[in-house]
Design brief:
about 220 residues, globular, about 55% helix, protein dimerization activity, Sig_transdc_His_kin_sub3_dim/P, single chain, alpha+beta, disordered C terminus, 5 strands, Heat Shock Protein 90, 2 domains
């Protein structure tokens, strides 16, 4: 599973670079040329100038969408590392929404392993799940506080996101609020995902992601 995710992450990074270096730069050059034409036709050709202005604005939105796609392949925030990305995400979440947060990160929570590609894949998944979890808190929980716990050992990484909001009924906790997307992300790499929520009692999201081969039970007779 780890090897498969490593291949996926390498491919996502390659696609992101190709889009940025080729299509992104071409669109940016076109935007500059359109802007120059827009300025040069100002006053002399009102109809053409208006059309060029709308074309330039439309192209600007296309470039923004393209950047969002590139960021979705590999969040730019992770360029500074998972710890920085998580802390900045939580600070922004609290500032914008007025919801307090508490981050409890274990001593080795942000340590990497021997394979940078696998680390990058896991960091992306953890960060995306955190983003989706916080988005659910804002949209549905009516919470005033959220607690995040992140711990890592040699075999697994665990993350818990708990809010003090209104909770969710059973059917919604299983199927709604973008939670299916989180479940799919975790299961795709052999992890586990659980939701504990009751109306009026807040919501706890728990996930476990395997980082390496599981420990062998004593006396199993299996060799490394």
């Amino acid at each position: 599973v780890a090897q498969q995710e490593k291949v996926r992450e390498l491919e996502r990074n390659r696609i992101g670079r190709d889009i940025h270096d080729d299509l992104g730069q071409s669109l940016l050059a076109l935007k500059i040329e359109l802007s120059m034409l827009h300025v040069s036709t100002n006053g002399a050709h009102p109809a053409i100038n208006d059309k060029l202005g709308r074309m330039s604005a439309s192209l600007g939105e296309t470039i923004k969408s393209l950047r969002a796609i590139i960021n979705d392949l590999r969040p730019a925030a992770l360029d500074a590392g998972l710890q920085s990305a998580v802390e900045r995400q939580l600070d922004e979440f609290s500032r914008i929404n007025g919801i307090r947060y508490e981050l409890n990160a274990g001593e080795h929570a942000f340590d990497g392993g021997a394979d940078a590609a696998i680390d990058a894949a896991i960091d992306t998944i953890v960060f995306r799940i955190l983003q989706e979890s916080l988005s659910n808190v804002v949209r549905h929980a009516q919470a005033t506080e959220v607690k995040i716990a992140l711990h890592r050992c040699s075999e697994r990484l665990t993350m818990k996101v708990q809010d003090n909001g209104v909770g969710m009924p059973g059917n919604r906790a299983s199927h709604g609020c973008g939670l299916l997307g989180i479940k799919d992300r975790v299961r795709a790499i052999g992890g586990e995902f659980a939701i504990d929520s009751e109306p009026g009692a807040g919501t706890l999201l728990s996930l476990t992601i395997p980082l390496g081969r599981p420990a062998l039970a004593p006396g199993s007779g299996m060799t490394q």
